[in-house]
Amino acid sequence: MKPAIHWWSNSPHAPTGYGTQTKAVAHRLANAGFPTSIGANYGAETVGIDDRTKSGKPCPIYPRGIDPYSQDVIVAHYKDWASKNKGRPCHLVTLYDVWVLKHHELRDVPKIFSWTPIDHINVPKAVAAWCAQPHVTPVAMSKHGQEALAKRDIDSVYIPHTVEKVFAPSEGGGPIMQVPDDHFVVMMNAANKGQTPTRKAFTENLLALSMFMKKHDDVSLYLHSEMAVQGGINLPELIESVGLPQDRVHAPNAYAYRMGGYTDSDLAKMYSRADVLLAVSMGEGFGIPTVEAQACGTRVIGSDAAATPELLASDCWAVEGQPEWNPMQSSWWFRPHIQPIVEALEEAYSAPRGPSQACLDKAKEYAADVVVKRDWFPLLGG
Q1: Which of 19, 76, 103, 119 has the most beta carbons within 10 angstroms of its beta carbon?
Q2: Are residues 239 and 343 in the same domain?
Q3: 262, 172 contact by CB (below 8 A)
Q4: What CATH number does the domain containing 32 carry?
């Protein structure tokens, strides 16, 4: 008998990294006979949803609570799902930053599997404290995370994030992005969250782009993000400040972006139209756009830190930087240097156009059907 699973993360309907991975894994668990529910800490408000997978298997979604991280309801939702599946063990799987897990009754949950992002160079103290508990099995989403946990004498299981089949070379991205047909297109796909600092290193990326684009009048930027949002930075203001040519900067429709109006198919078309994905950041727990872009044959410029280097194909770029202290988590991030980003952009500009076979091959390592069957089923008892 397969155990029941209560999956705590973003709703599978949320157009976020956590949302896409929740849909990829939780729905496959339900289809494989694991009774699975989802506790949504984002993307489902007020009432539960009697959701189903594409194959028709039930996968109900419990709504978020009042607490910003739903700590007021996380255990209650778990207990409710366990009561509906009496006679089976019920496991709690978490996919989010584990330092937010503070409900005192979590210590009474028999088995917790925490798919844990380690987006710093080392493991923050609060993350290590959670992962060291005897009833918690840390699931590292990167080899970097597994190695960083091991340095704190914490054993973990390595299971990477996944990419769906829809991410493949495809046509039609240019009209969606509204970029000129004959331009070299740099794409960024990064959530606009955080201000001091912003983990996605918008300042360094846009400064480097300004230097690069001043040398090439046939280059456009497509920035797939919210341009101005509470809790983020004012990107139009930053774009103006660094001197980017605003007639060559393109962004999504704000309403469509917020409402999830861009599908995975749309993203695949955009990645395919882009000549390079600029994904340099201060640290990634995994970095889903990096793999999605490569699955479409698009080369990536990323950081030489945290999870990113292990994701990059041989013809991609990992730029240098220096350690950056993050006082919020008492741990080390990575501050990318601007000049290496400019140099990587120049190399990308000179590289052959069209899909990269090395990128396509690299992305196959993260195919959702393979990863879930190979790694998640046996871990959870299937």
Answers
A1: 119
A2: yes
A3: no
A4: 3.40.50.11930
Is pTM beyond 0.90? Reply is: yes
One domain, residues 372 and 344:
no
Residues 151 and 237 in one domain: no
CB-side neighbour CA atoms (13 Å) of 349: 20
Whole-angstrom Cα distance, residue 189 to residue 152? 32
What's the CA gap between 350 and 184, in Å, rounded? Answer: 10
Residues in the chain: 382
What is the spatial distance between Cα 314 and Cα 319, in angstroms, rounded to a whole number?
A: 14
Q: In whole angstroms, what is the distance from residue 161 CA to residue 170 CA?
A: 22
The tens place of each residue's pLDDT in the chain, 382 residues long, gives 899 999 999 999 988 999 999 999 999 999 999 999 999 999 888 667 777 888 788 899 999 999 999 999 999 999 999 999 999 999 999 999 999 999 999 999 999 999 999 999 999 999 999 999 999 999 999 999 999 999 999 999 999 999 999 999 999 999 999 999 999 999 999 999 887 778 999 999 999 999 999 999 999 999 999 998 888 899 999 999 999 999 999 999 999 998 889 999 999 999 999 999 999 999 999 999 999 999 999 999 999 999 999 999 999 999 999 999 999 889 999 999 999 999 999 999 999 999 999 999 999 999 999 999 999 999 999 6
CA 296 to chain centre: 17
Positive or negative, the Cα torsion across 292, 295, 298, 302?
A: positive
Instruction: Kindly state whether residues 333 and 373 are assigned to the same domain.
Output: no
